[in-house]
Design goal:
The protein is mainly β. It is 0% helix and 45% strand. It is built from no helices and seven strands. It has strands spanning 26-30, 37-43, 51-56, 62-67, 74-78, 85-93, 96-105. The strands form two sheets. A four-stranded antiparallel β-sheet has the order 4-3-6-7, with no helix packed on it. A three-stranded antiparallel β-sheet has the order 1-2-5, with no helix packed on it.
Length: 107
């Protein structure tokens, strides 16, 4: 994934007007690597009105977009329709990529 200009690698330090102390963005996957299902665990700014979990393939094409603002702070993702390979799972808040995690699908 590194060096692929098509992927959204601008997340993490782009916090706009808010201070780093006020916002904590976390994203993790279990199991990872996965074969058919994985759970995405995340945290985001609680006042967020437009949070999404977005999945990109190795070529930078968005393959899944899911609404991420959910009180449970987790989403079950069925990966059986995705090809084997490396994907980038991104937490987006109000149009800004906040954090990302690699997901490996292996069958």
């Amino acid at each position: 994934i590194e060096g692929n200009a098509a992927l959204p690698l601008c997340m993490g330090n782009v916090l706009g007007q808010r201070s780093r102390e006020d916002i904590r963005y976390n994203l993790s996957l279990a199991p990872n690597p996965t074969d058919t299902n994985t759970t995405i665990f995340y945290s985001y700014h609680k006042e967020c009105k437009a949070c999404f979990i977005r999945i990109f393939n190795y070529n930078g094409k968005e393959v899944i977009q899911k609404l991420g603002c959910d009180p449970s702070n987790k989403k079950l993702l069925n990966t059986s329709n995705l090809s084997e390979g490396v994907y980038l799972v991104v937490l987006e808040e109000e149009g800004i990529f906040r954090t990302a995690e690699r997901m490996v699908i292996s069958r």
